[in-house]
UniProtKB/TrEMBL annotation:
The lineage of its organism: Eukaryota, Viridiplantae, Streptophyta, Embryophyta, Tracheophyta. This is Protein NRT1/ PTR FAMILY 1.2-like. GO terms for cellular component: membrane. It comes from Nicotiana sylvestris. Its main location: membrane. The gene is LOC104229783. InterPro entries: MFS_trans_sf (IPR036259), POT_fam (IPR000109).
Length: 367
């Protein structure tokens, strides 16, 4: 499938100089036999029968991806088509279905990129190991939680959130929203991003308190000394982040399933996994960049190995700010996504009517 999608991109590029003026004529598009999709999205008039519309409603009337329609335009039937109707060269001509699949993949990229930030916030909790090692981790006098095991609270919070949402919130919310799943996938993604912002802000506040107490206790130059403060202060931020990850992850995957065609169903969970893979690269660049920028001129880095002299709280505030900006970007993407439907002002109409029009291949430019 990935090779086929790449072939569609190459085909569209090779036909980049082809005019789209006649693209609303169904006979100029290469399509599979017995398919209900006979024309690519945005290349039809408002009087076009329903069978010519894209089966992916959110793709209809999107002019920004119209250039990809060139990939399925037939310029020379004798040269580009085999006797059985298949494309003689898939790198020059592809089907309408493949073009629509490619558009669907491009459509989810903005929403997918907005989810990377929540993975970055999860990755930054590696610093919590350094923090909790300097704090009292006892739950009971005889039981001490290992510093690296505090991420367990994140998993527990994620599990609890999924159970509460599925068994309690969905039945209640469905009565008001009319949606079987309670909230739409986009709403759940936004909710997850908001909770992640709150989690990072709470992390910054907690670290500020921890650092201040360490300085007051004369431990500024001893990063391994124990601060008289319970490590359980970190549990709320882990709980918030766990709920954020659960809400965003489920909403993100369901959003992919709602946009992508059935032939690309396997890509939905793969896109989520790719986001976790990109986390390592983004996190490395972010940490290295902040450390280099702040430590310039011999200054103490926010991410100093001595966390009592550094300012992890400033770094967490930076992540909070980035998370807020990321949420704003997601809102812009959602607005563009939901406003791409047909408008009544006729601005998306094409000058040519496809319905009932007889096409003449001689009108097409020579290849």
């Amino acid at each position: 499938l990935l090779i086929a999608l790449f072939q569609a991109v190459v085909a569209a590029f090779r036909k980049r100089n082809t005019s789209l003026a006649l693209a609303d004529c169904d006979y100029y598009h290469h399509r599979q036999l017995e398919t209900v999709l006979v024309a690519p999205s945005s290349d039809f008039s408002y009087n076009t029968p329903v069978t010519t519309l894209s089966p992916f409603p959110m793709l209809n009337d999107i002019a920004c991806y119209r250039c990809l329609n060139r990939a399925c335009m037939i310029q020379d039937p004798q040269r580009e088509l085999n006797p059985d109707g298949s494309a003689s060269n898939p790198w020059s001509l592809c089907t309408v279905e493949l073009v629509e699949s490619l558009k669907a993949l491009f459509r989810i990229f903005p929403m997918w990129s907005s989810g990377i930030m929540i993975f970055v916030t999860i990755g930054q909790f590696a610093f919590s190991i350094l923090q909790t090692k300097t704090m009292d981790r006892h739950i009971f006098p005889q039981f001490e939680v290992p510093a690296a095991s505090f991420s367990t609270f994140l998993i527990i919070a994620s599990t609890i959130w999924l159970i509460l949402y599925d068994r309690i919130l969905v039945p209640l919310l469905s009565k008001y929203t009319g949606l079987r799943e309670g909230l739409s996938p986009i709403t759940r993604m936004g909710f997850g991003l908001v909770i992640s912002c709150m989690s990072m802000a709470l992390s910054a506040i907690t670290e500020s308190i921890r650092r201040q107490r360490a300085i007051e206790q004369g431990l500024e130059d001893d990063p391994k000394a124990l601060v008289n403060m319970s490590a359980m202060w970190f549990v709320p931020q882990y709980a918030l982040l766990g709920a954020a990850e659960a809400a965003h992850a489920v909403g993100q995957i369901e959003f992919y399933y709602s946009i992508l065609p059935k032939s690309m169903a396997s890509i939905a969970p793969a896109m989520y996994t790719i986001g976790t893979a990109v986390l390592g690269l983004v996190e490395s660049i972010l940490v290295s960049g902040v450390d280099w920028l702040i430590s310039a001129g011999g200054k103490t880095s926010w991410l100093s190995s001595n966390i009592n002299r550094g300012h992890l709280d400033y770094y967490f505030w930076l992540l909070t700010f980035m998370s807020v900006i990321n949420f704003k970007i997601m809102m812009v993407c959602c607005t563009a996504l939901l406003n791409n439907g047909p408008r009544n002002d006729g601005s998306n109409r094409l000058s040519h009517e496809a319905e009932g029009k007889q096409c003449d291949y001689r009108l097409l430019p020579e290849s």
